[in-house]
Amino acid sequence: MSDRWTENVKTNLLPLSIEKNDLRKALAEWFYTGNTYDLSYPDENCELCNHQGIRFQFEIQNYLTKSILLIGSECILRFSISAVDDQGKVLDQKETTKKVHKDRRQLISDARTKRVINSLVELAQKDTKFDGIDSSIEYFQERGAFSPKHLLFLLWRMKESGVSFNKSDFKMTIKRNREKDQLLDMKDWEVRKILPAMSASQQKWYHEHS
Ligand SMILES: [Zn+2]
Fold first, then answer.
1. What is the pTM of this model?
2. Which residue among 11, 66, 175, 201 is the one 20 to 30 A from 139 at the CA level?
3. What is the DSSP string of 11-63?
4. Residue 86 Cα, ligand 1 centroid: separation in angstroms?
5. How distant, in Å, are the alpha carbons of 116, 138, 153, 203, 210 from that of 53?
6. Separation of CA 46 and ligand 1 centre (Å)
């Protein structure tokens, strides 16, 4: 191990470890705690390799010195830092990789949920006629998506009220027959409005059934 990244890692890691020379031995003192942070914007550096533009921080800790570093998820995998499970059991590389990917997906999904709820709150503030905010939030938190009619209504009201929102955050669900019927009953222009919120398989289903 000797490239630019490794030199940075040595500089950052060895002073906080008991082992002061051998990077491999020093790395073995560290584990991924499972704590993660979303900074909303990529404006931090990885505290292990100095890589710039980290948005999602993953916490590693030295089990001897108790020191903590906030690093990018790639560094956990690149330097084979082990994760631990809920019972404190050390996970192998395969399990660690699975956990890191899962935790990363969770951060992305939590960020989307937060953006959708913020848009709905903004809508309730700007649109005095919109009184369905609590039920909208509840529905979304439960299902992660909206029914076709609900979605059409929200997109329309948000646009009318000048609410900023991320179109791809608003997903549609047609798992229930009632929701499928809603979609099939819609006019073409209505379907076009919610098309960006539809997954590829939902669009395919629609074209086969409409
Ligand atoms: Zn890094």
1. 0.82
2. 201
3. HHHGGGSS--S-HHHHHTTEEEEEEEEE-SSS-B--TTT--S-B-EEEEEEET
4. 24
5. 24, 34, 37, 35, 45
6. 5
Ligand 1 centre to CA of 103 (Å) is 17
Centre of ligand 1 to C-alpha 70, Å, is 9
CA of 11 to the centre of ligand 1 (A): 13
Asked if residue 102 has pLDDT above 90, the reply is yes
CA 90 to ligand 1 centroid distance, Å: 21
**How far is it, in rounded angstroms, from Cα 71 to Cα 94?**
20
Q: How many residues does the chain have?
A: 210
Label residue 2 by pLDDT band (50, 70, 90). low
